[in-house]
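Data availability (excerpt). The following record was deposited with the supplementary files.
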Amino acid sequence: MHPNYFRVFLTFARNSLVRDMMFRANFLIEAITGLAWACMNLGFYWIVFEYTDSIGRETGWGKYEFFVFLGTTWIVNSIVQTFFMPNLDEFSELIRTGGLDFVLLKPIDSQFLISLRKINWSGLSFLGLGGVTVWLSIQQLCQRAVSPWQPDVGTFIFYPLFILCGVTVLYSLMICLAATSVWLGRNQTLYDFWFYITNFSRYPMEIYTRGWGLPLYFLFTYVIPVLIVVNVPARIMAQPIYGGASHRGWLPVFMLCATVITFFASRWVFNRSLSAYRSASS
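Predicted structure:
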């Protein structure tokens, strides 16, 4: 019988919530710690904008445009860290302990099962803070005296669409990293390597378009497309894609293509890794 994936996901979500509520103190500490770090990060950038009006000249990233970017970063990372990171970080343990044997025997897509077995509900605290930051920043942009932000239906349709695209790109890169555990035996550096790569996506791509930043710009836009993960949805919401950076109007189309390519590439890498897997009993 073909499994109902949505019902399976709801079962995973319910079981994970029950598990988290068994340790409420730990759940609250994780949520509060994450929020405290994010608030300090927000305060840091608030201080930075006391000394400058924008990040770079004629980039479109003023104070509140950048706060839209920052809130979007938290939204994207929150979804990835809530649903995918806890599971893919344990993939090497499944291989080492033989737990992957039992996963492969189940009548359900192995990648789905490995990716969504556990949900870290405390990670959604970033999602709430990111949403509030974007909303308050948009209100400021709507009320400014010069070139006030004017929302339209397309903005509110494409913004969540490209957030999902960004999540898909990050997930695809993450599953490729996790799949290397089959060949490496034990990949305990996933978190470290993941942080090094995604750290480039936390800032507007304009900062990489000069001097020594150009190689990084091309690498992390066209080869490992992490720069577009936050830049595209943030631009759609905060409008710099139509302002000083109008020459970047091709980015949404490129992101749609990159999303499809990275997802199917990750499926290929994952399936290749499973074909190379040898049972723990063999």
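Summary of structural features: DSSP finds 14 helices and no strands in the chain.
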